Amino acid sequence: MKRHGILNRHLAGALAELGHGDGVLVCDAGMPIPGGPRVVDLAFRAGVPSFAEVLEGLLDELVVEGATAASEVRDANPAAAELLAGRFPGLGLVPHERLKELSAGARLVVRTGEARPYANVLLRCGVFF
């Protein structure tokens, strides 16, 4: 058994398969999930696990070279906007409809139990060297 890090075997395995340039959508419980990408659904109850918890856990494991979120997050969910701006100084913002289009090209979708709007981010994997 693993001692630390991500214990969910489906998520840990999916992360191990990612490569440079792959997209990972971390999304709230209400985000439409496109057909195609592998999905690891962590949602248990409304708010559990939270977007922030899952994002922080993923960032401990992944090298991320870029991130994109919906511009609507700034007005509709200031807490998520602040979290994203703090973690990704070069955060790209696009309309929510465009984020949904971009998410169709993700390799992995991680659905959280987050119940606040626009708590979604599309991560672009980098390399550690």
TrEMBL record:
The keyword Isomerase applies. Pathway: Carbohydrate metabolism; D-ribose degradation; D-ribose 5-phosphate from beta-D-ribopyranose: step 1/2. Keywords: Carbohydrate metabolism, Cytoplasm, Isomerase. Its EC number is 5.4.99.62. The active site is at residue 20. It catalyses: beta-D-ribopyranose = beta-D-ribofuranose. SUPFAM superfamilies: RbsD-like. It comes from the Bacteria. Signal peptide: none annotated. Substrate binds at residues 28, 96, 118-120. It is found in: Cytoplasm. One of its GO terms (molecular function) is D-ribose pyranase activity. The keyword Protease does not apply. HAMAP family: D_rib_pyranase. Belongs to the RbsD / FucU family. RbsD subfamily. Catalyzes the interconversion of beta-pyran and beta-furan forms of D-ribose. Homodecamer. This is D-ribose pyranase. It comes from Streptomyces atrovirens.
